[in-house]
TrEMBL record:
InterPro entries: DHS-like_NAD/FAD-binding_dom (IPR029035), THDP-binding (IPR029061), Thiamin_PyroP_enz_cen_dom (IPR012000), Thiamin_PyroP_enz_TPP-bd_dom (IPR012001), TPP_enz (IPR045229). GO terms for molecular function: acetolactate synthase activity; flavin adenine dinucleotide binding; magnesium ion binding; thiamine pyrophosphate binding. GO terms for cellular component: acetolactate synthase complex. Residues 195-287 form the Thiamine pyrophosphate enzyme central domain. This is Thiamine pyrophosphate enzyme N-terminal TPP-binding domain-containing protein. SUPFAM superfamilies: DHS-like NAD/FAD-binding domain, Thiamin diphosphate-binding fold (THDP-binding). It comes from Candidatus Entotheonella gemina. One of its GO terms (biological process) is L-valine biosynthetic process. It comes from the Bacteria. Belongs to the TPP enzyme family. Residues 9-124 form the Thiamine pyrophosphate enzyme N-terminal TPP-binding domain. Signal peptide: none annotated. The lineage of its organism: Bacteria, Pseudomonadati, Nitrospinota/Tectimicrobiota group, Candidatus Tectimicrobiota, Candidatus Entotheonellia.
Length: 288
């Protein structure tokens, strides 16, 4: 029975409803028999474009690239076993590039789990070190709850990939499924005392520099970054492959901190205060 707060449908159709609810407009996939209910649900949907590929690695990388270009979570759907392993390169890229990505993976039937079923993989172990969260849905009534949380985790904090495992029989099972609203976007609110401390450090520094990464773009804070640089008269470098984090024609822009030795990297080495915004200080950013 469908009501104002529930709909009677199968798990696969619930997944499609959840994607639409999150504002997803493009889904990348390689069709597979382990998620035919999702494909069936996509058939009558006009506001979500299903883009099919020949290989799952390409599909997942397309979703990851789409997320970079749109600043919205990319979504990829692949089949179990080799479909998941092929897609793992996209998950790895999303992890290292801090890209919000949702990978939906077909799984063997629930009764077959742990019995060395054909193409069965424990995704928690396989993806555990490169994904922000790995979860398997075993009850279709939990589809909205888990999918909503998956998008929230992929977007929040340092963005990254989330993997959701979907047993085939769960996707085919019908139930009264509750509707869940998306998580609200959480904005950071730094403690005033920390802001005061930063201002004092900048005032005391002789050669401060800003190192900007893609976090400023995902936060929609590019203009604020420009004003910050101009207000305090601090030069800016961008991190590895993040040239668009700051206008390259701005007089305060010194260049990109690439993996090779260059003037931008020399400027960072000669500074007495590095203000890292929207980036982590990893090996590529610090040259070691």
């Amino acid at each position: 029975m469908s009501t104002a707060k529930t709909r009677h449908m199968n798990g696969g159709h619930a997944v499609v409803d959840c994607l639409r609810n999150e504002g997803v407009r493009h889904v990348f996939n390689v069709p597979g028999e382990s998620f035919t209910s999702i494909l069936d649900g996509m058939r009558d949907v006009n506001d979500v474009r299903l883009i099919s590929n020949r290989q799952e690695g390409g599909a997942c990388l397309m979703a990851e690239a789409y997320a970079k270009a749109s600043r919205q979570p990319g979504v990829c759907v692949v089949t179990r076993g080799p479909g998941a392993t092929n897609a793992s390169i996209g998950v790895h890229c999303a992890r290292h590039d801090s890209t919000p990505l949702i990978l939906l993976v077909g799984q063997v039937a629930r009764a077959a789990r742990g019995r060395e079923a054909g193409q069965e993989i424990d995704y928690t172990h396989f993806f555990g070190s490169i994904a922000k969260w790995v979860i398997e849905i075993n009850d279709p009534r939990r589809v909205p709850e888990v999918i909503s949380r998956a998008f929230h985790i992929a977007r929040s904090g340092r963005p990254g990939p989330v993997v959701v495992s979907l047993p085939r029989d769960m996707l085919d099972e019908a139930a009264d499924i509750p509707l869940v609203a998306p998580y609200p976007v959480i904005r950071a609110h730094p403690e005033p005392g920390l802001i005061k401390d930063l201002v004092e450090r900048i005032a005391a520094a002789q050669n401060p520099i800003i190192m900007a990464g893609s976090g400023t773009e995902y936060a929609g804070a590019r203009e604020e970054l420009i004003r910050f640089s101009e207000t305090f008269q601090i030069p800016v470098v961008t991190t590895y492959r993040r040239l668009s984090a700051f206008p390259n024609d701005h007089p305060h822009y010194l260049g990109n901190v690439s993996s090779a030795k260059n003037a931008a990297r020399d400027a960072v080495a000669g500074s007495d205060l590095v203000v890292a915004i929207g980036t982590r200080l990893n090996q590529q950013s610090t040259a070691g």
